[in-house]
UniProtKB/TrEMBL annotation:
Listed InterPro entries: Metalloenz_LuxS/M16 (IPR011249), Peptidase_M16 (IPR050626), Peptidase_M16_C (IPR007863), Peptidase_M16_M (IPR032632)
Protein family according to the UniProt entry: Belongs to the peptidase M16 family.
PANTHER family documented for this protein: INSULIN-DEGRADING ENZYME-RELATED, NARDILYSIN
Pfam families: Peptidase_M16_C (PF05193), Peptidase_M16_M (PF16187)
SUPFAM superfamilies named among the record's database cross-references: LuxS/MPP-like metallohydrolase (SSF63411)
Domain Peptidase M16 C-terminal: 2-155
Gene3D superfamilies xrefs: Metalloenzyme, LuxS/M16 peptidase-like (3.30.830.10)
Protein name: NRDC protein
Amino acid sequence: LDTLEKWVTEIFSEIPNNGLPKPSFSHLTQPFDTPEFHKLYRVVPIRKVHSLNITWALPPQEQHYRVKPLHYISWLVGHEGKGSVLSFLRKKFWALALYGGNDETGFEQNSTYSVFSISVTLTDEGYKHFYEVAHIVFQYVKMLQKRGPDKRQVRKLTFILFYLLYRIWEEIQKIEANEFHYQEQTDPVDYVESLCENMQLFKQEDFLTGDELLFDYKPEV
């Protein structure tokens, strides 16, 4: 550590500190407010594969890193058990795999916007019905929206839904905690690079865990 500190001091001490604030692009919150975004694009792949990708542009979500709402939604969308989107599409022989999520960094999440994408790997038969596949995905997302905590519902029903949604969130929280505590050792250089990035995004007490763990359950978020 003493040697590393000496190197860092020698290399970086000559860089002047101009006292300028960190650049902010938070006022540019509608980068996809253009007709070109609300379209269907057909791209011919190099290899033989059929994939349907649906992308939503959302307000910036990085301030909600302790809640990770997009991680929660992606867990529900990507569920493969009975009653899931993928299970339904597989029964129709229309899809092989489904992934939904946000990388929580870089292009997909920043101070300007966040994106949420759902990607479905289609069979040859599924490609013939990709409009119907897209419709099913939107129906599922609409169902999740309707079944979320709603103050207008009967109090008892609201409590049951709130409890079920909390149990799902708690399950995700435990899974992520286990993966964090029992993860394999990473390359030191990659680890330091990751920590330096986290220092720009999270509070000091969350430098090590801000990009990994779920802390707070806030259904309104």
